Structures are given as C-alpha cells and as structure tokens.
Amino acid sequence: MRFTRRRFVTAGVPLSFAVTGLGAGLASFFSGPARADDNPSPADLADAGPDGDIMIGSDQAPVTVIEYASMTCPHCAHFSETTFPELQKRYIDTGKVRYTLRAFPLDALSAAGFMLARCGGKDKYMPMVETLFAKQPEWIVKEPLPPLKEIAKQFGMGESQFNECLANQKLLDSIQAVRDHAAQKLGVNSTPTFFVNGKKLVGDVSIDQMAKEIDPYLKAG
C-alpha cells in the first residue's frame, strides 16, 4: 500500500478512514524485497531519506540512537512519555547520546501526524511529536481533523498552513520512502524499533534496557 493525499483528504472527512483501517493492509506494507537481518550496514542505517534526520544532542556524542516509530502506536507513546524524558535528561542533554526519531507510519493517520511535525520546522519537530504522542486519545478518533488542527495551532500553525501541509504529496512521499527503506534494508517490521550504535532493539524498552546498551560505550570512551 502506498500513501497518497487522496487516501486521507477525501470526501470532506480527512483522515477518518485511517482509524477504522488501523492495521489493515499491513502485510502489503512489508511486501517486496526481503528484509534485512538485525545487523544492517552502516550505510543503510545512515540513510535518513530525502528530507534528512532532525537530530537532538551533541554531534560529538559517542552513542547515536535512532528510533523508528508510528504516531498512532500506543507503545511508542508510552516510550515517549516514560522512557524518553529520562533518556534525554541522562544522556542526550549531557552530550552522551545523539538521538533522532524517524517515521515508520503503520497507517495514513500516523503519516499525517509526521507530516504536521515536519511542517512545524526543526525546532518544533520533537516537541510536536511528543505532544502528539501524549494526546493520542484526543486525535485517534472518528473525526481526527479538529483535534489535529488544535494541536497544530499550539505550535503556531494556522488553518491554511495546516491544510497545505497535509496536501504536500512530496512530503508524504518522503515519509513513505523512510518507512520503505527501514522495512526493506533495516529489518524494521514493528514499532518502536531502536538502533543503538547500530544494535537493534525492538519494543517499548525501559531506561534500564537503554542504559545497558549505552553505558558500555561511555566506559570505553
């Protein structure tokens, strides 16, 4: 399945089909070339897609954490609300970890969330992602457009910018390219999936599990 603007901006009810269709067609998302094993090449892992990564943390950090997430994934939201704040406090803000979150939408509604976060600009990307995760119950509803508009408004996005963002097929194609690359080259098939200096971790990991992977690199340094 490929995402197109028509899939979630049609008949005056943008995005609403995505909720009822959550999980439908996932097999086709991962059809095509065989997926990679758990040890992708550094070149494949470094491929951030057409629009590149939005990184936080020092570019001199000894550890890079890449997260693949879906905006409608409850496990991703739980990680965002429980583990990520401690990860940021302990490792990102102290210059030990450089972190990025890449889009791996499992449905069109998730893709729309990532589009809005991207349209907010680099400085607002992670705050908007965190807000979307925190407010999942408010916008994963039958009519998600009004609550999504309200969230976007909190980040200075007016209605015309909101509409233009969700009509941006180039941006949607870029998000799809990131997801397809992750599935086909990195072996990603669920969310959240993390790569800690290239090592793959799957699921809603705790800060202790993260620390177990990160700390040896710090001691080695």
Q: Overview of this structure, please?
A:
The termini are far apart. The protein has helices spanning 5-8, 16-20, 26-29, 42-46, 74-92, 108-119, 122-134, 136-139, 145-154, 159-166, 169-185, 207-220; strands at 55-56, 63-69, 97-103, 193-196, 199-202. α5 packs across α7 (122-134). It has a five-stranded mixed sheet, with helices on both faces. β4 (193-196) and β5 form a beta hairpin. With 221 residues, the protein is of the alpha+beta class.
Question: How much helical structure, as a percent, in the residues?
Answer: 40-55%
Structural class: alpha+beta
Write down the overall mean pLDDT: 86
- What is the global morphology? globular
Biggest sheet statistics: 5 strands, mixed
Order of helices and strands: HHHHEEHEHHHHHHEEH
- Please report the distance between the alpha carbons of the first and last residues: 44 Å
Q: What is the CA-based Rg, rounded? A: 17 Å
The number of E-state strands comes to 5
**Beta content:** 5-15%
Compute the number of helices: 12
Low-confidence stretches are 3-36
How would you write the strand order of the largest sheet?
1-3-2-4-5
